[in-house]
Amino acid sequence: MNLTSFFIYCIVVTFAPGPSNIVILTSVGQVGPRKTMEYVWGATVAFGVLLAASALLNHLLAEILPGILQVMQIVGSVYMIYLAYQVYKMGSTETASKQVTGFLNGLIMQFVNPKVVLFTFTVIPSYVLPYYDSTMSTFLFVIIITIIGFFAYSSWVVFGSVFRTLLNRHQKAVSILMAFFLIYSAIMVSGII
């Protein structure tokens, strides 16, 4: 196994902007880092569960994966559009932020986030299972990748905290821009473009 390639893949995918990272960045400006960390914990738990499911159910899912991915694209796109609306509302009301942040929303977002689902269903079968067949080694890689994901989400909280004043000063513009990115992500995931 090429560990360098494995770590580069994990870091690039988890740190790259995606629906969860956009919600995290926007939420930090609205509710602060402490409240946003609830969302991060939910996202991290779901990320780990998806990785574990990929590792444990790889053979079963390989046969039905195309159908699952199509459903996830549709559900994920609809949920991202809903989140885009919620993020847009953050620029105009204080109560909107409570609807997007929180442990449960972080958890749900990961299960319908096609970026995360595709990553978790490819990283274990591509990088781990061809080289390690023991349950313990697979479990160790699930933990390592989950920790990388947690650091990625937390880095977005730190970034949002550092630039919080700037983000709050341009709250409406940032909310519109982040909502646009979520809608763009939804369109790209749906396969329309």
From TrEMBL:
Task: Give TM segment ranges.
Answer: 6-28, 40-61, 67-85, 106-127, 139-162, 174-192
Q: Which Pfam families would you find in this protein's record?
A: LysE
> What InterPro entries does the entry give?
LeuE-type
Key words, A-Z = Cell membrane, Membrane, Transmembrane, Transmembrane helix
Q: What is its main location?
A: membrane
Q: Which compartments does it reside in?
A: Cell membrane
- Membrane topology listed for this record: Multi-pass membrane protein
What is the official name of this protein in its record?
Threonine/homoserine/homoserine lactone efflux protein
